[in-house]
Amino acid sequence: MNIVERFGGVFLLPVAIAIIAFVLIGAPSSWLTLTVAGLAMGMMLFLMASGLSLVFGLMDVLNFGHSAFVSFGAFVAASVLAYFGGWLGSDSIVLNIMALVFAISAAIVFGAALGWFFERVIIKPVYSDHLRQILITMGALIVAEQLILATWGGTPTNVPRPQFLEGTIIVGGSSLEVYRLFAFVVGALVYAGLYLLLNKTRMGLLIRAGVENREMVEALGFRIDRLFIGVFMLGSGLAAMGGAMWAGYETLITPALGAEMMVIVFIVVIIGGLGSIQGTLLGAIMVALMQNYVGYLSPKLALASNMLLMMAILLWRPYGLAPAVK
Amino acid sequence: MNRTFAVKAIALTIWGLLLFSPFLFQEVRQVEVAARIAVFIVLVASYDLLIGYTGIVSFAHTMFFGFGAYGVAIAMKQGDNTWGFWILGTLAGVLVAAVVAVLIGLLSLRVKAIFFAMITLAAASVALVLASQLSGLTGGEDGITYRSPDVFKSANKLLTDEEGKVLRIAGVRMNGKIAAYYFVFFTCALMFWMMLRIVGSPLGTVLKAIRENEARTEGIGYRVVAYRTAVFVIAATTAALAGAVYATWLKYTGPDTTLSFAIMIDILLMVVIGGMGTMWGAAIGATLMVLAQYYLRDLMEVAAAATEAIPLLPVLLSPDRWLLWLGIIFILLVYFFPAGIAGTIIRGRKS
Amino acid sequence: MSLLQIKNMDVSIGQYSVLHEVTFDVPEGGVFVLLGRNGAGKTTTLRSIMGLWDRPIGSVTFRGEDISALHTSDIAKKGIAFVPENMGIFGGLTVAENMVLATTSGKFDQTRLTRVYELFPALEQFWDKQAWSLSGGQKQMLAVARAIIEPRDLILIDEPTKGLAPSIISAMGESFREISETTTILLVEQNFAFAKSLGRDMAVLDDGKVVHTGSMADFAADTALQDRLLSLSMEAS
């Protein structure tokens, strides 16, 4: 047990899942494709879930409307990409990248602004009242979903991809989609950025301390509520970014996207444990790997498998695998 | 005292109207509305056992409702439309609901309320996905159509006049349809009465104590987790029974009539409108919402047509945007009238 | 003039009254001890001073200024530090990070840091360890160290000896005595021997009310009074 702990403890679980899947799948090239797909999806899930986890940890606020940020991010990015359609098709990689940067930035800005509105108008009046918090944020999710329906319509929206992210590369007999590699790299960069923010800056120190014991941070002379609005906006911006990346991954999106992702995002934060980004990353990678492996081995069980995974982990650790110290 | 009486009087009036509704409202659609109200009163009251009386939020209530409905539907489709299969299907549905409720309860009721909400939401969506994927058994998205027991057939003559035709009382045919309605009415009334007994019993008192102060109740020596799980199981099995009754009435079961998230939102709205923590409020909330669902959409259609010339308004007023307005109303209600209609009447105006 | 004056403080949860017209003055300098049985309202009094209670009624005057309506963080900035009963250690953070958070600028004043090291050598030894791995006594030292790393006028300490070994308690007493030479301490304590050895002035709370105030020397000499106020109430708890 001690040896397991030394080499990463629960953080070895995704590796264990990958090894088991390797045996079950049998074909190394398919396994590699699935693993890359799982890692890419895991990174996008991490983007969507990290804010939810931090916000809950810091203020004990659970925003059931969190997936509205994901949806809006996806649709805003799709619209911006469609607007720059000419640049996307061009052979110039600079124009390609610029269109992509515009789209993702627009999603982030929109998500953060929406987050500000959510926190100030919707959630603030019901701090510390969980029952009403759940009900109100659920109501807000319904309204947000309906607004998306009214704006973008009920038919699936096409999401154009930049030229340079199309296609696949062949590695050792397995074909890897370029977009998935891109999603993985972007997600990893954001994780690294968040990690540095939380562990190397004074603000990050305050956030980590606040997640553990908000009262004590205030008794040391800091205002958590002012910090909280910033974290909330950061989290909603990241969720929107995750939605934007997801839109490019799916290439066809519907307004039901938010509701679909919400369930997966919840499973991610429950598995990972609330309040820590390490836990969220762990949960996201595990859920995404499971989803891809099981989807290949037995397609009908994909979502149910994650549910079973969650149940098993809750039996073992009721607060998730790596929650923040409370 | 008087104010509580007023709430009870309203709720009893609703039950009274439901009792006579086949005679009072003779259109087919109106009887549909009455049956739906009866079923939803039970469904909402059983949900109120959780949210209002125990303070736990579950998003899996439609899942349990669906277990009961699909139990009846599958039994009558795979078997035949005899009461034997009806009982089999109902029991199977209720049993599945009870087992799943115990599992979820023991697993997640010991941690934070918020975990429970998330886990029930995940479970409900898995049930929804399974229902559409296991199409061999459930009919997938299309659902299952089947026949209900023969007594409820329209052609069945309950009472006949001298010429052997269906007897009419006050213009209403005494056929299988009316039998079906009163089957729905009396089973629902019975379940509602039983829930009233539950909240009035010592169990109800313990539940309220848990809601008010969990740690203290635990300290006095009550096993909070056990009580919560028990209530969750009672609520789940009641919802499953309501589902079985509704499936018998509709002769159709599909994701849209039982499992969908839209119905969960309806239940939430009904419980909040009626007033959390009052069984009688459930009756008021369910009635208002079902009436609104059937008749307000028509009104929106008229409004959208009337404002055609104005930009934006018709889009927002279109009947398809029905949920948008419900969502806004819901948020405003939770902010400004968290006690709902019943609670506001009972408490009276704040002085 | 007193450093801290509490006047007619009322706190209730629902219909239960927790504190009832609590009034006492904490003079500047030395250790002021708040005694009383479990549930008498001592912790609630400290939390109310610190602004950690929703709506306490009454006034809290610190250096002549009413601070009862201020936000907790602003009360802290006035120069009041708080060491809660559960110590309020950030277990996932290192000892160093815990200490950094207690500074306003994020930098240590070297002389004060040296003094902290002298008072609590264990903290220097475990400086880069995560705080959850410390022993109970070390956590308590860290909590107190956080309170003195910046110059403060008043430190509120809630039951620091709870669950600690006698040898650690006596060391703790030494450091409190030293700290109280420069900073006033308002100490909530159940351990009467510990309280007696440190206290200059004191008050006794019972059932949410102040039932006695005076100097510790007088109280320590009057065993009849002790019996009436503490022994009786100790039995009751």
CATH architecture name of chain A? Orthogonal Bundle
Strand arrangement across the biggest beta sheet of chain A: 1-4
What is the number of helical segments of chain B per DSSP (H or I, 4+ residues)? 16
**Given the C-alpha coordinates, what overall shape of chain A results?**
globular
Our measurement of the CA-to-CA distance between the termini of chain A, rounded to an integer number of angstroms, reads 24 Å
The secondary-structure element order of chain B is: HHHHHHEEEHHHHEHHHHHH
At the first level of CATH, the class of chain B is Mainly Alpha
Q: Which residues of chain B form runs of ≥5 with pLDDT under 50? A: none
Can you give keywords for this protein?
heterotrimer, B: 351 residues, mainly alpha, ABC transporter involved in vitamin B12 uptake, BtuC, two-stranded antiparallel sheet, two-stranded antiparallel ribbon, 2% strand, C: 237 residues, alpha/beta, Rossmann fold, 6-stranded mixed beta sheet, 4-stranded antiparallel beta sheet, 10 helices, 10 strands, disordered C terminus
Describe this structure in words.
The complex is a heterotrimer of chains A (326), B (351) and C (237). By secondary structure, chain A is mainly α. In chain A, strands 1-4 form a two-stranded antiparallel ribbon. A two-stranded antiparallel ribbon of chain A has the order 2-3. Chain A has helices spanning 2-6, 13-25, 28-59, 66-83, 85-89, 93-123, 130-152, 178-200, 202-212, 214-219, 224-250, 257-272, 277-297, 302-316, and strands at 157-158, 168-171, 174-177, 252-253. In chain A, helix 2 runs antiparallel to helix 3 (28-59), helix 3 (28-59) runs antiparallel to helix 13 and helix 4 packs antiparallel against helix 6 (93-123). Chain A has one domain: ABC transporter involved in vitamin B12 uptake, BtuC (Orthogonal Bundle). Chain B has a single domain (2-347), classed as ABC transporter involved in vitamin B12 uptake, BtuC, CATH 1.10.3470. Chain B has helices at residues 2-24, 28-51, 61-78, 83-108, 113-133, 135-138, 176-200, 202-212, 214-220, 224-250, 255-259, 261-274, 279-306, 313-317, 322-336, 340-347, and strands spanning 144-145, 168-169, 172-173, 252-253. In chain B, strand 2 and strand 3 (172-173) form a beta hairpin. Chain C is α/β, with parallel strands linked by helices and 237 residues long. Chain C has a single domain (4-89, 154-236), classed as P-loop containing nucleotide triphosphate hydrolases (Rossmann fold), CATH 3.40.50. Chain C has a 6-stranded mixed sheet with strand order 6-7-8-3-9-10, sandwiched between helices. The N and C termini of chain C lie far apart (36 Å). Chains A and B meet through helix 7, helix 12 and helix 14 of A and helix 4, helix 5, helix 12 and helix 15 of B.
